[in-house]
């Protein structure tokens, strides 16, 4: 028997490993659980945002403002704060016909537009 052949065979069995050890598996499961937990936390924050309910509330405010413009024939531009929203009424006259645009924005973030309605007013 050759010593070299026995040595090669023993090295081959030592370096040839199949699968993962218990520690490697536990570390991988821990990392996976941590990543999944972070993703669930981030996405649940987006889904629990109150944007849908705020946009419905803003749409109701915009419709009320449009109704007010129609019934009162108030064709003045104005900006007012209502229930945490900035309600902006703009008048644009095109060919002697007034177009009224009501824009409802978040008071805390004026760049966020929740609702925008435009009507054409017929003068009496």
What do you see in this structure?
The protein is of the alpha+beta class. The protein folds into two domains: 45 residues; 70 residues. It contains three helices and four strands. The chain has a four-stranded antiparallel sheet with strand order 1-2-3-4, covered by helices on one side. The longest helix is centred in the first third of the chain and has 26 residues. The radius of gyration is 34 Å and the shape is rod-shaped. The mean pLDDT is 79.
* Overall tally of structural domains: 2
The low-confidence parts are: none
Task: Specify the helix fraction band.
Answer: 40-55%
- Give the number of helices: 3
SSE topology string: HHHEEEE
Q: Outline of this structure?
A:
This protein is α+β, with helices and mostly antiparallel strands and 124 residues long. It is 49% helix and 27% strand. It has two domains: 3-47; 51-120.
What are the defining features of this structure?
4-stranded antiparallel beta sheet; alpha+beta; 2 domains; 124 residues; 3 helices
Spell out the blueprint of helices and strands.
Layout (H helix, E strand, L loop, with lengths): L2 H13 L6 H26 L3 H22 L5 E5 L2 E10 L2 E10 L6 E8 L4
Antiparallel strand pairs: 1-2, 2-3, 3-4
